[in-house]
Design a protein that fits this description.
Elements lengths: L2 H5 L2 E5 L6 E6 L3 H20 L1 H18 L1 H12 L3 H26 L2 E3 L8 E9 L2 E5 L7 H12 L3 E5 L5 H14 L6 E3 L4 H8 L5 E5 L2 H12 L5 E4 L4 E5 L5 H13 L9 E7 H16 L19 H14 L3 E4 L5 E2 L2 E2 L2 E4 L6 H4 L6 E7 L2 H8 L4 E2 L1 E5 L3 H10 L4 E4 L4 H4 L8 E2 L2 E2 L4 H7 L1 E9 L14 H15 L2
Parallel strand pairs: 5-6, 5-8, 6-7, 8-9, 10-11, 10-18, 11-16, 15-16, 18-19
Antiparallel strand pairs: 1-2, 3-4, 4-22, 9-21, 12-15, 13-14, 17-20
The structure holds NADPH dihydro-nicotinamide-adenine-dinucleotide phosphate.
Amino acid sequence: MTISEERATVFASLSPATGAVVGEHPVCDEEAVRAAVERARPAGVWWAGLGWRERERRLLAWKSAVVRRLEELGELVRAETGKPFDEAMLESILGVEHLNWAARNARRVLRARRVRTGLATVNQAASVEYQPLGVVGVIGPWNYPVFTPCGSIGYALAAGNAVVFKPSEYTPGVGALLVRAFAEVVPEHPVLQVVTGFGATGAALCRAGVDKIAFTGSTATAKRVLAQCADTLTPVVAECGGKDALIVAADADVRAAASAAVWGAMVNGGQSCVGVERVYAVREVYQEFLGQVAELCRGLRVGDGAEAHYGPITMPGQIDVIAGHIEDALRRGGRAVVGGAESVRAPYVDPVVLTGVPEDSTAMTEETFGPVLVVNEVRDVDEAVRRANGSRYGLGSAVFSGDRAASMRIARRLRTGATSVNSVVSFAAVPALPFGGTADSGFGRVHGADGLREFSRAKSITRQRFAIPLNLTSFQRTPRDMRVALRMVRFLHGR
Ligand code: NDP
């Protein structure tokens, strides 16, 4: 944060394509954030008290309100991020799918259920239920400003929590619009609020006494968030960056693999957490695959117009990172098949395809977050899996193979939170599937039943139904009680 940012009371979101002001928003300071969290507390109690059915009804009404504003939302996403309108609509549609699933499945996943007791506790009735945490702070990124926060906010609300949402400084308008649409269908209390501002506003949210932080953003910021949450022991779910690999086996449909790899790498200008950044193609298909990738990339149009496949790099600072990765790869012996250093012409970067890049180049070890795809040749699938797993990230991955059983085996061996077979990114679009990473890609899960439980606390209850003659948890216990207990254990577990 610069000194001028620190003193500002309002800030502007800008079009990354033209620099034009899209909107102005307040810079919420520590006091404003604390006030929002304090307002959220009673609102959360009220929301939890509405019960499953009424919450479901309100959340589905919110979903409809968002759909009624889909064009407005898509236009705002386009203006604030620079991505093409259709891509903006696509992420909004996916966000809506998640709101729908979370609303319709919260009761089924989280409601109280009986569990079996053991022989020693046969006189107890046992149940578990998932109760709301209270107030959840959601910190979101700018690259998918609808889809990504919906994957946290929708599930946190469906689980019965109030939410205070800090959108990225690049996409505050999108965050504010989502919250306005929610207030239309839940006008009574501030169950979902937005606090806009810079990183300091997010830091204030971490310190404001919320019951959990759902953070989506870079690994570096996640570490700061964890440190900020340490003092108050505020739990965190961290959805961070990735360096996703795609494996092309010898029996793959090469045309389909090339098309998916190019889309996965270049959509949104490569600014996707689960974007394809590395490809390992086995030697039998490497040349053919590389040729098709190159041809498809040469046909991509980059710019601000309606005909563009992708737009500008949203965050100005990322341009240097992308340029640095290209330069490092070429300096270490990598070869540019499409584009090269000259492809970087801020705020745009034309598609870059590199090959023969050493595994210790930054283009292979760090998240590039730009339209740069590395295609490396490998001997066989085992080498591909080993190299894919060599990353410190572990978010998504993909496998292309014509052999169903073999592709499932490869998918299971990939040390990532999710893998798609014969497509890319599909796991993020299936609302029932948990989404999240390992290692530097973070921990915890959003989406699906696990995503609902992430925003709940498991509450266990036992109720004694009748007294049994075996008196173990009492100072009136007799030596006979212990003898019987030991005999029982030896009989049940000692053979
Ligand atoms: P950043 O880490 O820069 O920012 C993420 C959010 O954290 C922003 O709202 C930011 O606010 C806020 N923030 C910044 N500093 C702090 C702080 N000290 N305390 C609390 N919050 C803070 O990420 P980007 O917005 O650049 O997003 C891109 C990254 O997100 C990529 O690494 C991408 O892979 C990852 N990502 C991960 C996804 C996943 O599901 N795993 C999905 C989408 C993206 P401000 O913007 O105002 O600085």
